[in-house]
Structures are given as structure tokens and as C-alpha cells.
Write a structure and sequence with these properties.
62% helix; mainly alpha; Sec8_exocyst_N
Length: 1073
Amino acid sequence: MSIFHGLPVSQEKSYIREELARIDESWTAARFDSLPHVVHTLTSKDREGEIQILREQSDVIEEVVDEVVHSYHSGFNKAIQNYSLILRLFSESAESINVLKIDLAEAKKRLGTRNKQLHQLWYRSVTLRHIISLLDQIENIAKVPGRIEKLTAEKQFYAAVQLYVQCMLMLEREGLQTVGALQDVRSELTKLRGVLFYKVLEELHEHLYNKGEYSSTSSIHDKDEEIPTTTAIALSSNSQPVSRRTRLLKNESHIGGQGLADGSFRSVSIDGGSSYDGHEDEGPPDLHDEIGLDENHASFKVNGVDGVKSFSRQIPTWLSQAIPDEFLETIKKTEAPLHVKYLQTMVECLCRLGKVAAAGAIISQRLRPTIHDIITSQIKAHAAQVNYSSPSIRQTGQSAAAGLLLMKGPLGSYQLSKQKHQHGILPVGTLLSVSPVSSAMAPSGKAQSSAKQLLNSVFDTILRIFENHVIVGELLESKSAIYGEINTTKSSLVDENWNPDYEASQVTGGYSISFSLSVLQSECQQLICEILRATPEAASADAAVQTARLANKTPSKDKRDGSEDSLTFAFRFTDTALSAPSQGSDLIRQGWNRRSSNTLQEGYGSAAVLPEQGIYLTASVYRPVLQFTDKVASILPQKYSQLGNDGLLSFVENFVKDHFLPTMFVDYRKGVQQAISTPAAFRPRPHATATYTPFIEKGRPVLQGLLAIDFLAREVIGWAQAMPKFAGELVKHVQTFLERTYERCRTSYMEAVLEKQSYMLIGRHDIEKLMQCDPASACLPDSHVQLNMESNASDSETAQIELELSDILLSLRPIKQENLIRDDNKLILLASLSDSLEYVADSIERLGKTAVRTSDQVEDEVTNRRQQHSRTGSALIKDLASFADEYRKLAVDCLKVLRIEMQLETVFHLQEMNSREYLDDQDAEEPDDFIITLTSQITRRDEEMSPFVAPAKRNYIFGGICSIAANASVKALADMKSINLFGVQQICRNSIALEQTLAAIPSLDSDSVQQRLDRVRTYFELLNMPSEALLAFISEHAHLFTHPEYSNLLKVQVPGREIPFDAQDRLSEILSA
């Protein structure tokens, strides 16, 4: 029975548990029914046995109960005793309370008799304490100027300001206003206020420009993770959205409603209390004890109780002697960087001194010259660093030149020579000077990298400075918010066009975030103009265009400064310039440097760092400006987000569109024209290497014109990579001069093949189809040919294709000499043009991939900026791919013309076999003259073309000679009337001479040549066999030659050989069997 588990039964009586386990569970039911048990006992056969079992179970249960009672008996007794003790204590307490009530009543009665006398003594004590307090305050106030000077010397400015404010508040108390001895103290404190103001302002100025002791020297985005996004205290009622970086600063700068713009702060009193009358029950304060704190502890008194408040050791050192207040608690709780805390402290000091407007005015006045000096010093330091590390720079310059291959490809080693030899003759292995920029001004040149490094360095400094201005600007605006709210109603009644931002700017002395950003961008724009040699007229024109564009949006009279919608900053040009004559893009590129003699030009000295200056440095300016604008947008609070949309980036983009791109297009158009119009542009190199090399660095003989065009294309794509937003326009320009170059190549091709039979034949549909099916076309740089061709064509199919093509060419006999390209220079030009076109096509494909990456990059940037882009990456690569296909198609046409030309040349020479009788009376020692001419021509042309085409292309050009020569030789027997033994030997000698010539060409398969020409010799040697032997040979080798070819063997007359009259019939029977 589980109900008895856990009972206190000893181990000696463990049998009790076994007995209990045997008892049925029904005995422990909540509603016990005895009737079933009674009936069971009565109806049992052994009634006495059942009754005995029940008695035994009853004994077991009684024994268990005895064990339980024995175990818990002592506990029951203790509980009863404790309860009795508690009752007794309660009774005694009630009696004591009654006695205490009686005593209190007697005490109250006795105190009531002395009430009036005690009140008089208390009032006298308070009066004397107040007098003593005033005397102590007068004594301590007299020591305050010296303590302020000491704190100022120790740069404990906040403690000094606290002491000054508290002293001034105490001097305004009723009891101290008429004390004559404190007049000198008042005058001295007034002077100290000015000293404190200039000291604090100087510290703030130093830290604004990262020159102070606690300034931040790291990049502005290195500590993004350290800036918390939550605030400790919500304080300002004038809540406005701010940036993530400055979100906490506004809340931390407000000290519980302390601080009006006029400096009327309600601070803790000089004696540690919070009231002004001093009528508290407390001891005399000691000003020295409260101000002279050590770094970690501060003693103070509140409501007459001495206490010690411990400061965290994380409190900055400049606040170590400050009186604990709400601002100090906020500084201690915040996790802002050290320089931010220091800026907060300085702004708080200015606000407590009531000098917000004066500080803003001075900061605004000193902003522009300070930024100018900082940029100038930054450039000088950069120049000194460059000069100090000039040996390493030369080494890195060499490595950078080697790395130029990554963008410019192999042409990086073929930098165009800018200096020609005498009489305008270029040295071997150099290109025409067609690039409008020097190597230093190229997209990856030294001047570009130097300008980019310089701007990145300057912009990083400017950004860190601007971050400080955003912090200070928001703090000053938040401090002036209450003042602005007070004057809102009055200003609204006076002027319906009242602007709160304008009023806030007036309260802060004209200083604001928008003003500081305007000045910073103006100075950066001036530096960019100096780097680009841009004229004030051009920049002012851009500013005028921008202003007009902004004015055309929605004219509104109630916008005084336009700071809500966009940033319109004034370009700083203090010098007057003569009007520049319109002489084209050369003046823009070189810079209009003519100035009036009486004007002062303010510069930054960037020429000391940059090897060259000019408009082409726009490429290195664009990316830093874009990054600068993005970082400015990330720093700006939400209410100023529109300030970053227009300004420096807008100026640079307008400059690119209005000046850089037109100038570059004109210059590169001239370069393209110069590259393709010179006589040497499409002239194969006279001293090419002995063997062909596919690498441009090792002397691949690409035509100089196409090499120069490829160089210019790569250079323009380099500009596109530097300025991705304008990649579409630059790629269009590349397409334009690639199209012009293609037309020039097409013209050179037509000049070489015009009215030639080979050119007309490749245009025929049947020949074009056969050439596409020819396995030899696998080497052609044309993907369409390779797709339409079966790569695993059998030998029989290949022989059939060659036979059909040979039949078409042989049907053109007689071939006239004027229909052939007899000038070897034209053939060499076609070979070189084909290889050069293929090289440019490959380069165009690589340029297309580069352009796509650039376009994808700008699409990502445009998506982030929510603008539209005119062209997509797929469209750019499609256009460039179409140009690559056109170039390859023309290259294939050149190879096809050369192949057909060599086959026609073979047919032209071998057609003399048809007019000659081979009935020689003696064995000739030399081949026929036309064979000698043909072999010498093949050898000469192969040697001349070998430096200009790859071995596979040479195989294609000369590979068709063997098949056409074999077929022409075999078919020539049909036109012969007679031939003797010496004639057969002469033809075999011709075949051997041709085989030796073709086998000498390394690119040709000598086994294939031997197999085809062995067939010719075998065919003519059959003429030496008797007719019966010939028929027997035919029956054994029926498929070696065709029926017409065997028939011609029987038709020709051979002296000494008799042909039966039924020889043709027997031949037909043999071949038809």
C-alpha cells in the first residue's frame, strides 16, 4: 500500500512493510464501503481463516501506529512548550507598552511648560549661524579669484567656471550685495570671466582642429562600434533627429534644464545646498574644502550631514577637481570617446559663462583661414614625407609600372615614346605618340596616384575636423534651443517668414553645421581647382549653373539661406582673372594662368607634391570626392541630410561633364586620327622577329595603328574605372573610335584584295559553306565557324570536301595572272592584319568585362543614391562584343583570302601541264620551270609570313596547296594526248619537288603531304604498266582512284603500250562488280 510509504519504521521491523504491502488498496479508499468485505467473509468457505487474516492485518496497522506515535512524541511535546512560551511573552509586552504610554504622557506635559523658552533659543541659534555663514562666505569669496587662476593654470576649466558661477550667484544674495569689500572681488571676477572665455575658446579651437591634448588622431570610421546608440538621460524638450554619431551628445550636454543662453544657470550653492537664502540647519561651509578636491573623492555637506562621494577613476583628468553635479554624472556614465567628452566640457563652460554667441562668431571668423592653413601644412608634410622616402618611391614606382599590366594588359610595357628621332623616324619596337597624356598623367600614372593619396590625406583630416564641428554645432544649437523657444512667439508676430534655423544661427553668432560644411567644401573645392588648374571663371560658371538649377525647383520667398533643401556654398576666389579666350580644350587642359599683376593668388602648394597638374587629374579627384561626400552624409544629422546632396560632388560632376569629358573626347579623337592615318599605321614591321610569338612583350608583330588604338582604348577604360558614373559615355567613345578603326582596317583590306579572284570566291555561298565544313577551319578565330563544323570529321569526309573545293577551283581555269595578288607585301599585310585584328578582338573582350565590372559598380552606387542610370552592364558588354565579332570576322576573311590565294596560285602554275606534251627524249634532272617558280614562291611567302601569323594559321594558309596540287596533277592527265616514260618521270619529279617544299614548312603535316603526293606518283606510274597488268591492278585496287581517273589512264597514248579495244568495257565491269 503506497499510502504507508515513508512511515518511520525501523529496520528490525521491516516485516511490517511486507505485511502492509499485502493489504488490498480498497481498504484505503476515500469512501470506504464495508459491505463487499462482509459479504466476502460470509460467503467464504473458510470464514474463520478470513477473520484471522483481518485480525492479523489489524494488528499490523496498530503496530505501525504505535511506531509513529513513538517517533513523533518528543516533537509534539516541544511544540506545546514553545507555544506556551510565546503566549507568555506576548502578555509581558502588552504590560510594558501600557507603562510606556503613561511615561510619554508625563513627558509631553513637562515639555509643554517650556515651549516658549525653547523657541526663543532656537531662533537665536539660527540667526547667529546665518551671521557666521555670511562671514565665512565673504572670507571664502575673497579667495575665489586666486583659486580660479590656479584652476585655469592647471586647465581645470570646468571647475573654474563652476567656481565663478557659484561666486557670482552668492554675490547676488541679499546679505552680500551691500558689502563694500566685495566690490573689488566683483571687478576682478568680471575680468576673469573674459580670461576664462578666451582660454576655453582657445582650447575648444585647438580640439576642433585635432591639435589639442585630447584630440582624436584616428580615422572617423575606426570607432563606429565604440559609439553607443542609447543615451543615459533624455533632457532636451526641443528634440530633433540626429545622426548616430551625435545622437548621444545632445542628451548628454543638457544638465537637467540648466543653462539659458544668457548664462543664468541654477547651480548647486557654494555651501553644498540647493537654496539661495542659506536658512538651513547646517554648519558653516568651507569653500576651499569643497573646491579643493583630489582626483578621486569630493567632500560636501547636504542638510547638515557630512558625507563623502566617491568618483569613478574613469572620470577624465580635466574634471578631477570639479564639484559633483548632473553634468559630471552624465560624463561619467557616457561611453563616448575622450575627445568628445572634452568638446562637451568646453561647450558647457561657454554656456555657463553666457558666451555662446561670442564663441560662435569667433569660431566662424577663424574657420576659413584655419582650414586653409591646415590644408597647406598637410600638403607640406606630405611633400616632406615624399622627399624623405624618394628612394622607396622610385622602387614602388617601378613595381607600379609592372603592375600596370593588370589594367592595361601587355601594352603596359609598350609605353608610347614621346620623343621621335630626327626626321620623324621612330625607332624599331616603339609606337606612335598618340596618347594625349604623359605616362605620369595616365590613369595609373604617378601623378594620378600622388593626387589621390594627397586628396585622401586632406579629406581624412577635413572629415575628422568636420566631425568635431558637427558635435560642437549640435551642442551649441541644443543650448540655444530654450532661448529660441522664448523668442519664437515674438519673432512670429513680427515676421511671417521667420526661419528657426536662421534664428538659431543668430543665437550662436552665425555658427552652424551648414556654415562649417559650406566653408570646408569651399576650401576643398579651391584645392581641387588648383590641382586641376581649373579657372575661377569655369568654377564660378559651374556655381552659377548650380544656383540657377536650384532656383528653378520651387521659388520661395521664405527661404533665406536655402539650407533646408540643398547646400549652396560660395566658391572662394578672391583674385580677379582676365577673361579667357575660347581657344578650345587646350586652354582648359593647360590652365588659364594669366592673372592681373595686382591680384593676390592664394594657393596651397600642391605642385610640390604632384609631378604634374592639369585637367586629367580629374580621374584621381573623383573617387576621393565621392567617398568624402558619402562620409559627410554619414556624419550629418538627419535634419541636415540634404546638405550632402549638392556641393563638392556636384561641382566635380559638373566639371567632368562640362570640361573633362569634352576635352578628353577631342584629345582622344585626335589621337585616334593620328594613329590610323599615318603611313606606318598599317605597314608590317620591316624587322619582325624570325619566329612568331603570341606575346606582345616578346615582340608580337601587331600593326602599329591597331596597337596604338588598343592602347588608347585601354586608357579610356582606365578613365572609366576611375569614374564609374561616366563609364557609359566613355565606353561609347571607345566604341566610336573602334568603329572608325574597323573602317580603316576594312579599307586596307579592300585595297589589298579589290578585284582579285580570291576575294570574290570567298563571297560565294558554295565555297563559303565548304570552307566552314573543312576541318582546317578549326584554327580560325571565329566561334560561329567552330559551332557549325563537326570537329570529328572522318578522313573520307575531309577528302570529299577537299575534292569538291578543288573541282570548283579547277573549273575556273584558265586563271589569269592579273586576277591574283602578285604583290607579296599585300599578302604580308593581310597576314599581319589578321593577327592584329584577332589581338584587338581579344583585347576588346577583356575591355568589355572590365567595363561591365565598372558599370555594375556604378549601378550599385546609383542604387544607393536612388538615381537612374542610362546604360546597363549587359548592354555595354553586348556592344563591345559585337565589335569583337566584327574584328574577328575581318581577321577570318583575311585568312580565307590567303588560303584561296595560295590555292589559286597553285592552280595558275599547274595549269601549264595541260598545254605541255610529256614526250621527252631524255630524263630531265630538274623539275619543270612552273614547279620551280611555284615552290620558290611558296618558300618565299612562308618565310615572309612566318613572323606575322601563328603556326596554326600558317598551316591553314598553306595547308590547301597539297590537295589542290594533287587533284590538279591527276586531272591534268585527261587533257594530255600522249605521254612517255620520261614524261612520267618528269611529273614524278615535279611531285617530289613540291612535296619537299611543303614538308619544309614546319606547320604542315609532312605525312599528310607525302600521302597525297604519293598518290599522284602512284597514279602516273601506272602508265608504265601493260594494259593487262593495269587492269589486274585496277581489279585489286578498285577504290584507290575514281572511275574517270582509271579511264583516263586507258585513254592517254603511251608509246609502246597497246590498249585492247574493249579495255573501257572491261574497266566498267571491274569497277561495277
